[in-house]
Amino acid sequence: MSALIALLVAAQSSPQDIKKADLPKSAICVVCTSNGEGHGEERPAAGVALNGKNYFFCNTKEVAEFKKDPEAFMPPMLPRPAVAINAKDLAGKPASLADYKGQVVLLDFWATWCAPCVKSMPALDKTYARLKEKGLVILGLSIDEDPKKVAPFLKKRPVSYPTLLDDPKEPTWAAYKVRAVPSMYLIGRDGQIVAQWRGEAKMKDVEAAIERALEAK
User: What's the pTM value of the predicted model, to 2 decimals?
Assistant: First the structure.
């Protein structure tokens, strides 16, 4: 009996395909939602059962992506400890979250080729200017494959908050399970991630979360 229970538990903890006949008429795609590209309910192309819950996809190709790392597509567990960053500033100096201990940090993963990222930068800069004296730090962490593009880009579109370059060999974006940019993580004074946004976020929501983090004791 114990062996049978063990097999059932193992089956529940690994993704199991849902038969096409059992798919609902409409559902939300877990991959698109995770990537910040939620487009509402539609007829799913496939589905997977995992740990007692069902997850659906608008494209059958997304199933394999989900099965590789299901945790990356799950709703975020908040709060949770922030992962160490592996990056350097534009001068080549190593950067660490420990440098900003006791402050509220907004970690913004972006790229020069990402239009929504570039669009949000002026608003982020204004928020930083307004709240830095209260303890806010914004770190723009570029994931560009060619880091040499970043400095010339910022000369044309300067921001006052620090910009960092991710390590291509041991990237921070992988440690944070970033699936799309922009992706932002709000880290409280205690080093816990208290909010996060995937895809283009509403700045009023970001600012409200920052204000709460700054006021938290």
Answer: 0.78
